[in-house]
């Protein structure tokens, strides 16, 4: 999915503003906060694909490329990378820009988030269930 620049006309899975409460002692935004936004963005796309509850089971290839500043607008773009039996891997890329002036967007993070489709008892269920395939055909 890697982009040279974000397409601000396409809809991100999540867009938010980095707030002072999310900052570390340096005044920049905590990596853990960014990770949480990316997990949420990936979960939006994974839930749509799985048509069920999901749980995050793994995060890989995570990199923090550039700091996020308080007040930055953060956009997380997510797409399905792989569909397994019960799991779905989502590529998530985050871009930040100051709220004033649209020209300075920079990629801040990227990573691959894997989710497992689960039932009401939190047990893994197949992603390609017959009812989903039927829904998508009609
Ligand atoms: C999600 C959960 C129900 C899955 O149950 P499980 O018995 O561990 O699942 P399995 O070992 O059968 O693996 C399920 C799928 O995840 C994949 N998987 C397992 N560990 C993985 C990892 N570290 N990274 C990526 N995929 C992984 C397996 O390959 C399998 O995929 P497939 O069915 O598409 O082939 C269980 O692990 C769980 O409840 N984990 C906690 C989830 C949670 O609370 N997340 C929030 C963060 S605290």
Write the SSE topology.
Blueprint: E1 14-17, H1 31-50, E2 53-64, E3 73-83, E4 87-97, E5 106-118, H2 130-137
Antiparallel strand pairs: 1-3, 2-5, 3-4, 4-5
The structure holds coenzyme A.
Explain this structure.
It is a single chain. With 138 residues, the chain is α+β, with helices and mostly antiparallel strands. The chain has one domain: Thiol Ester Dehydrase, Chain A. The chain is 20% helix and 37% strand. It has helices spanning 31-50, 130-137, and strands at residues 14-17, 53-64, 73-83, 87-97, 106-118. A five-stranded antiparallel beta sheet has the order 1-3-4-5-2, with helices on one face. The longest helix has 20 residues, at 31-50. It is elongated, with a radius of gyration of 16 Å. The mean pLDDT is 90. Coenzyme A binds at residues 55-58, 84-87, 114, 116, 118, 122, 124. Coenzyme A (COA) is lined by residues 55-58, 84-87, 114, 116, 118, 122, 124.
